[in-house]
Design a protein that fits this description.
The protein is α/β, with parallel strands linked by helices. The chain contains eleven helices and ten strands. Helix 3 links the parallel strand 5 and strand 6 (about 155-160).
Length: about 325
């Protein structure tokens, strides 16, 4: 069973949260909030949520601009009035941005907005203090939330996300990559094959990557297109690729597990430094897994997470 629950962000953006399974009558462990990465969606966590929900309440959030949450109309760089270099990268934008109430902040795709959305989900759904499990960008959102609102986050899992800045060259590479997408795809399977095998960024066949992107495609009038706007993904990414996040990481006081996919984007030296910086950091490494570790090696990810989560539950029950 998957049930949609609407959450309203501080700036009025409507967010789709998804509760997996019927919550246990008497949950024995803290609730879990699952946060997907850039271009992802809440339903990417369905397999993980299946076993997490046996003894816990489990909710996944479609972050703004993703999945079934609203895609706010953004002005400024990367918005409708943004530079010409980003034109032509728009995809379906879902709902338009809701009218702002007098005095309400304008909709945003900045870091503050993503963190505030997670905060709103926890508070409006009565989840806290919660265990946040985040992948990539969602992991960054999780540790920024834990640093700012320690009362809401009991424990944190960081899946394959770097703390160092990626830089302008990385942003330019992504813009060029977006332009290479052969949209529209004739079928969803064609999208799966391209992202898993034919994409120039793929060094060898990567079924997990193909599955990840196939699930963020929807059938439009002319073929299969992404649920998100590529232009908006660049805008969202712009707000964190130029900054390092070590200072906020050091402010996370709750137990934190740093999960590194062996063939992912987080190097071993950086991952181990992240564990050292964290006041209560732990480390896990998943072999034979790429960045989309929850698709590549779901059983291995479960084996890494379960001991950590059981330890968190044991502390909570004392």
């Amino acid at each position: 069973m998957v049930q949609r629950i609407d959450v309203t962000a501080a700036d009025g953006v409507r967010l789709a949260a998804w509760e997996f399974r019927d919550p246990p009558a008497e949950p024995r462990q803290p609730a879990v909030l699952l946060l997907h990465g850039l271009m992802g969606r809440a339903l990417h966590w369905a397999g993980t949520a299946g076993w997490l929900g046996e003894h816990r309440r489990v909710v996944a959030l479609d972050q703004r601009g993703h999945g079934q949450s609203e895609h706010p109309a953004i002005n400024g760089p990367g918005g409708p009035g943004g530079p010409a270099g980003l034109r032509g990268l728009s995809g379906p934008t879902g709902f338009g941005a809701p009218p702002s109430a007098p005095g309400a902040p304008a909709p945003s795709l900045g870091r503050e907005a993503f963190v505030a959305d997670a905060e709103a989900a926890i508070e409006q759904l009565g989840l806290g203090p919660v265990v946040v499990v985040g992948h990539s960008m969602g992991a960054l959102t999780g540790w920024q939330l834990a640093a700012r609102r320690p009362d809401l986050v009991q424990a944190l899992v960081i899946c394959d996300m770097r703390a160092s800045a990626l830089g302008e060259a990385s942003q330019q590479e992504w813009e060029e990559w977006f332009r290479r997408w052969p949209l529209p795809f004739p079928t969803q399977d064609a999208a799966r094959r391209w992202f898993g095998e034919d994409d120039p960024r793929v060094e060898r066949p990567d079924p997990g990557r193909g599955a990840f992107f196939a699930e963020v495609m929807h059938q439009a009038a002319d073929g299969w297109r992404p649920l998100f706007s590529r232009r908006q993904m660049l805008t969202a990414r712009e707000t964190w690729v130029h900054d390092a996040h070590w200072e906020e990481l050091a402010q996370v006081r709750c137990p934190t597990l740093v999960v590194r996919a062996l063939d992912g984007e987080l190097g071993r030296a950086e991952a181990q430094e992240m564990v050292r910086v964290l006041p209560a950091g732990q480390y896990a490494e998943i072999p034979d897994a790429g960045h989309y570790v929850h698709f590549d090696r779901p059983a291995a990810l479960r084996a890494a997470l379960e001991p950590f989560l059981e330890g968190v539950a044991g502390v909570a029950s004392r």
